[in-house]
């Protein structure tokens, strides 16, 4: 029997002490900063702060990671672990490098979640499956032991704030871990933590892959204005995809331009828009898009 078989999302304060291995699954955005600050302030120290790096994150995300590593060392608190997806030669892969080498776009542009699965879920699963502390928490002495023989699970903390509790609605029991959402349990909404600054952290801003098709108009504009070189790189990926997959198609001559109405034309994904088109829309009426921010890039949380 597994002592961590919960049928419903458990409250962090009720289950904290029952786990032998606890990790924060970091998106390295604003909610991550709040979650870590709140845990620190409550003397609730996880074993590790785990981030799965796509190799294509925003510069300010990498800057925050370095700050967090230094902060953790100074505070002698937890451990920052950055994971990367490796190819068959054990070299790091990135979303951008795959797009460039294959003249394609991130999978989410076509309605698939394989990008998240490949760079987040699979990378984290491999790490935990080979982690001796996880084996101990599971009550086994090696990987590959059937779940029915596990006597415990690991605790994975996800930074979803209370204003977006709907993002945690798909919670379900998992065989190797329990996911908990402390910010929701504590009623802490977006930018509502009083402890981020006081403990020595800060709000790092948007976290996602810089070619993520889930980015909103305002987020793309931020990339364009703050990181023009990376923005041009993203447009180049979009252009190469279009050259390889749209303009060479004979269908355009047979059926006309409308054949592409429901086709992914670029990094706008299933909206059928390119980022350049989205920026034209944004520049015409920035106030229409300014307050809108998408959260789905970090929902992988694995």
Give an account of the 3D structure.
With 302 residues, the protein is an alpha/beta fold. The chain has 2 domains: 12-185, Rossmann fold (3-Layer(aba) Sandwich), CATH 3.40.50; 217-295, no CATH class. The protein is built from 12 helices and 5 strands. The protein has helices spanning 12-15, 30-41, 59-75, 95-102, 114-129, 132-138, 182-185, 217-226, 228-245, 251-255, 275-284, 286-289; strands at residues 22-25, 48-53, 80-84, 154-158, 177-180. It has a 5-stranded parallel sheet with strand order 3-2-1-4-5, with helices on both faces. Strand 1, helix 2 and strand 2 (48-53) form a beta-alpha-beta unit. Helix 4 (95-102) packs parallel to helix 9, helix 8 packs across helix 9 and helix 8 crosses helix 11. The radius of gyration is 21 Å and the shape is globular. The protein starts with 11 loop residues before the first helix and ends in a 13-residue tail after the last helix. The model is unreliable at 251-262 and 294-302 (pLDDT under 50).
Overview in brief:
With 302 residues, the chain is α/β, with parallel strands linked by helices. It has helices at 12-15, 30-41, 59-75, 95-102, 114-129, 132-138, 182-185, 217-226, 228-245, 251-255, 275-284, 286-289; strands at residues 22-25, 48-53, 80-84, 154-158, 177-180.
């Amino acid at each position: 029997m597994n002592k961590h078989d919960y049928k419903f999302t458990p409250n962090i304060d009720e289950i904290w002490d029952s786990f032998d291995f606890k990790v924060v699954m970091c998106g390295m955005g604003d909610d991550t900063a709040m979650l870590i600050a709140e845990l620190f302030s409550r003397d609730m120290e996880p074993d590790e702060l785990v981030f799965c790096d796509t190799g294509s994150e925003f510069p300010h995300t990498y800057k925050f990671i370095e700050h967090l590593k230094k902060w953790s060392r100074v505070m002698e608190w937890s451990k920052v672990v950055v994971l990367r997806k490796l190819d068959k030669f054990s070299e790091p892969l990135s979303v951008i490098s795959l797009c460039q080498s294959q003249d394609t776009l991130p999978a989410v542009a076509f309605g698939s979640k394989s990008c998240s699965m490949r760079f987040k879920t699979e990378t984290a699963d491999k790490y935990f499956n080979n982690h001796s502390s996880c084996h101990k928490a599971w009550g086994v002495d090696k990987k590959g032991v059937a779940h029915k023989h596990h006597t415990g699970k690991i605790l994975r903390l996800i930074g979803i704030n209370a204003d977006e509790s709907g993002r945690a609605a798909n919670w379900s029991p998992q065989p190797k871990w329990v996911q908990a959402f402390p910010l929701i349990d504590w009623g802490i909404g977006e930018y509502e933590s009083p402890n981020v600054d006081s403990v020595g952290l800060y709000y790092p801003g948007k976290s996602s892959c810089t070619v993520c098709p889930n980015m909103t108009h305002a987020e793309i504009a931020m990339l364009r204005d703050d990181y023009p070189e990376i923005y041009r790189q993203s447009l180049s990926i979009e252009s190469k995809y279009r050259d390889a997959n749209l303009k060479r198609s004979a269908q355009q001559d047979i059926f006309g331009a409308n054949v592409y109405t429901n086709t992914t034309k670029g990094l706008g994904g299933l909206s059928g828009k390119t980022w350049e088109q989205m920026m034209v829309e944004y520049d015409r009426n920035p106030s229409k898009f300014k307050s809108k921010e998408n959260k789905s890039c970090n929902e992988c949380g694995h």
